[in-house]
Amino acid sequence: MADLDTYLEEWEPGPVTDTDSLDPERSQALAAVLETPRQLFGETELAPLWHWVYFQEWPPHSALGSDGHPTEGHFLPPIPDRRRMFAGGRLNITQPLQLGQPAERTSSLAQVVVKQGRSGEMVFVTVRSEFRQGGALRVVEEQDYVYRSGESTTKNPHSERPRQVPESTSEWQLEFTGDPVRLFRFSALTANAHRIHYDEPYAREVESYPGLVVHGPILAMLMTELARRSRTTGRVATVDYRLRAPVFAGEPVLVTGEPETDSARMAVVTAPDAVMAQAEVGFE
Ligand SMILES: C/C(=C\C(=O)SCCNC(=O)CCNC(=O)[C@H](O)C(C)(C)COP(=O)(O)OP(=O)(O)OC[C@H]1O[C@@H](n2cnc3c(N)ncnc32)[C@H](O)[C@@H]1OP(=O)(O)O)C(=O)O
After folding, report:
1. Which UniProt keyword terms apply here (predicted)?
2. Which of 20, 63, 216, 264 has the fewest Cβ atoms nearer than 10 Å?
3. Average pLDDT, the chain
4. Hey, CA dihedral for 249, 24, 266, 240, is it positive or negative?
């Protein structure tokens, strides 16, 4: 197979603009899935990262591939037998988006980088989105997706998985275990049809995972939500997160946080030295 660079030489997707009415009911549904305390999701303000349940794409069923992802997509890189994972991102909130008011999102390709990782060659695609209401820029986000090509070469690499919540001395802590019902409801809310999140035989037999994969956005949200509910002053202005290793349904994880002056260092761990995700949350 050719190097991934070869397939990407002429790939230059232009910007796209979408709109959404930011119906508060979708936030209420997300609050139910995350079990967010009532006082922490506003009647009027969209919480940080919660725009992930808005601006959805629903391609026709026939446009989905055997993995459940769309076969074609504006920001999907044209590499053969594409396998995708959410790898990280950054969020900057100047003013929170207002629920129930029309919003506009303009997304553009910010960066495409081919890298050599422990698991082989992969391409990181960064999409930058600007969110406006009434013409005013309120939120800027960058999302990093990692794509690999061809079949997974590592067969079931995760045989020894954690069974109990790790101990931690972190000031903020939250225990979490992904279960199939929560993953299914989150997939539905985010219009994510990828089978690794709800079809266990597919996740095990085709993608060689030891079980259902917990969505990266859930991990990013757990870290941000713990920071938000633990910090008593200031609102979240920035979030910078990286998803380091997959978490699977049934695995107990600990979400941890260490507050600093204007920020907090957050992590999702399965053991004291096993960091699955990390984030820095900045407060205004
Ligand atoms: C939604 C949705 C999908 C999902 O939710 S999928 C589930 C959530 N995502 C994950 O579980 C991903 C977990 N992360 C990984 O599996 C690995 O970290 C990853 C991203 C495959 C990379 O692993 P490697 O071990 O192969 O890579 P290295 O650690 O050796 O690093 C190689 C270079 O890549 C750079 N890099 C690594 N991670 C990131 C990242 N998150 N963002 C940006 N860059 C990254 C790393 O710095 C190295 O670069 P150098 O320049 O130093 O070589 C859905 O599909 O919608």
Report:
1. Lyase
2. 63
3. 93
4. positive
- CA 244 – ligand 1 centroid, Å: 6
How far does the centroid of ligand 1 lie from the alpha carbon of residue 93, in Å? 24
pLDDT confidence of residue 242 = 98
Domain boundaries, the chain: 4-283
Please give the sequence-ordered ranges of beta strands (E in DSSP) within the chain, or none if there are none: 16-20, 82-93, 103-117, 120-133, 136-149, 172-177, 236-243, 252-259, 263-271, 274-283
| pLDDT value, residue 1 | 64
pLDDT single digits (tens) 51-99: 999 999 999 999 999 999 999 999 999 999 999 999 999 999 999 999 9
Q: How far apart are CA 114 and CA 116, in angstroms?
A: 7
Give the angle subtended at the CA of 249 by the CAs of 55 and 79, to the nearest 5°.
55
CB-side neighbour CA atoms (13 Å) of 282: 11
**Cα(63)–Cα(160) distance, integer angstroms:** 36
Q: Is the CB of 76 under 6 A from ligand 1?
A: no
Give this complex's ipTM: 0.96
CA distance 233 to 195: 40
Q: Decide whether any atom of ligand 1 lies within 6 Å of the 217 Cβ.
A: yes
Alpha carbons 191 and 173: distance in angstroms, whole number: 29
Count Cβ atoms below 10 Å from residue 280 Cβ, excluding itself.
Answer: 17
pLDDT at site 182: 98
pLDDT tens column, 12-26? 999 999 999 999 999
Query: CATH homologous superfamily of domain 4-283?
Result: Hotdog Thioesterase (3.10.129.10)
